[in-house]
Design a protein that fits this description.
Layout lengths: L1 H14 L6 H7 L3 H13 L2 H35 L1 H22 L1 H6 L5 H17 L14 H14 L1 H4 L5 H7 L3 H12 L6 H28 L1 H21 L18 H29 L1
C-alpha cells in the first residue's frame, strides 16, 4: 500500500506543474509497465486480473488524491510565487532522469540503435505540442449550450487529451489548451459544483471520450512495450527530452503569462536539487524493489 501510495503521490505532484506529466514520473520510478498493465487488465483482463488491477489502481489513486490536494494547497501557490525556481527544479529532475532510464534500458537500446529515429519523433511530438499550445487562440466553447457538433468535438478532444496521462513528456493541460477546451471544461466543472446542471451533458460526453481514449491508448502502449520495447523506449526518451522545452515555456502558460525560463532566470541550485531528487527516487525505487523481493521469499 505504501509503495503504490508514494507512486501516486509523486504522479500528482508532476501533473500539477505545467510541462510535466504523471507518465514521466511513472517511467522514472520504474512502475510505468505496471501502471499501464493494470489499466489494460482492468479493461480487458479476466476477473482475477480485474480484481488485482483494481486493487493496485485504488492504492495508486489514494496517493494521487493526497498528492493533488497538497499540490493545490502548496505547490500551485509556490509555482505562482517562485515560478522560475520550481521550473528549474523540474528541469533538473527530468534532465537527471534521462540517463537513469537509458542505463536501465541500455541492453535493449544498444541492440536496436537504428531505432534512434523514434527518439527524434518523440522529441518533435512533445516539443510540437508545446509550440502549438503557444500559438493557438483557443476558440471559445460554451459547454452549457449542448449540440451534436459540440458533442462530437468534445468526445474527440477527450480521447486525445487523455493520452497525455499515459505518455511521458506530454502535458494534458497543454493539449486541452490547444483544442480550446481547457477553460470551457474547467468552467463547466465549476458550474456543476455550483449546481448549474446545464453543463452535465457536455461533461458526460467529454468523460466518455476520456474513457474511450484511455482504453485505446493503453492497449496500444501495452502492445508497443511488449512487441517493440526498444522503439517505444526511444520514443519516450525523446518525449521526455521535448518536455524540457515544455517546462521552459511553462511560465508563459500561467493565467498571467510570465517570461519563459532562460539562462537569466534559471536557478542552478534548484536544478541541482532536482537532479538529486531523481537520484533519491532511484534509490527509493531500488529499496522498495528489495523489500518486495524479501516479502516474497
Amino acid at each position: 500500500m505504501l509503495k503504490e501510495g508514494i507512486h501516486g503521490f509523486c504522479m500528482a505532484l508532476a501533473d500539477s506543474v505545467p510541462g510535466v506529466s504523471g507518465g514521466t514520473i511513472a517511467f522514472i520510478m520504474g512502475f510505468y509497465d505496471n501502471f499501464i498493465g493494470s489499466i489494460h487488465d482492468l479493461a480487458f483482463g479476466k476477473l482475477d486480473q480485474k480484481k488485482s488491477a483494481a486493487a493496485y489502481l485504488a492504492k495508486l489513486g489514494v496517493g494521487w488524491v493526497i498528492g493533488m490536494g497538497l499540490a493545490v494547497m502548496v505547490l500551485a501557490s509556490l509555482f505562482e510565487s517562485h515560478t522560475y525556481m520550481v521550473s528549474s527544479l523540474f528541469f533538473g529532475f527530468v534532465l537527471g532522469a534521462i540517463p537513469l532510464i537509458v542505463e536501465d534500458e541500455l541492453e535493449s537500446l544498444r541492440k536496436f540503435r537504428q531505432s534512434f529515429i523514434f527518439c527524434l519523433i518523440g522529441l518533435v511530438i512533445a516539443a510540437g505540442v508545446t509550440w502549438m499550445n503557444g500559438r493557438t487562440g483557443g476558440v471559445s466553447m460554451d459547454l452549457g449550450q449542448f449540440s451534436a457538433g459540440m458533442a462530437l468535438r468534445l468526445f474527440l478532444i477527450g480521447m486525445i487529451a487523455i493520452s497525455a496521462m499515459f505518455l511521458p513528456g506530454i502535458s494534458g493541460s497543454a493539449l486541452l489548451l490547444i483544442f480550446g477546451a481547457y477553460i470551457p471544461v474547467t468552467t463547466a466543472i465549476k458550474g456543476v459544483l455550483s449546481f448549474d446542471f446545464s453543463y452535465i451533458p457536455s461533461l458526460l460526453i467529454f468523460g466518455c471520450g476520456i474513457l474511450t481514449g484511455a482504453v485505446t491508448v493503453v492497449k496500444a502502449i501495452r502492445f508497443c512495450l511488449e512487441k517493440y520495447r526498444p522503439q517505444t523506449v526511444y520514443m519516450i526518451l525523446g518525449m521526455m527530452t521535448g518536455s524540457l522545452y515544455a517546462i521552459a515555456v511553462g511560465p508563459a502558460t500561467l493565467e498571467i503569462p510570465r517570461k519563459q525560463l532562460d539562462i537569466g532566470n534559471f536557478h542552478f541550485i534548484a536544478a541541482a536539487a532536482g537532479i538529486l531528487l531523481v537520484l533519491g527516487l532511484q534509490k527509493m525505487k531500488e529499496a522498495l524493489a528489495d523489500d518486495s523481493v524479501k516479502s516474497k521469499e
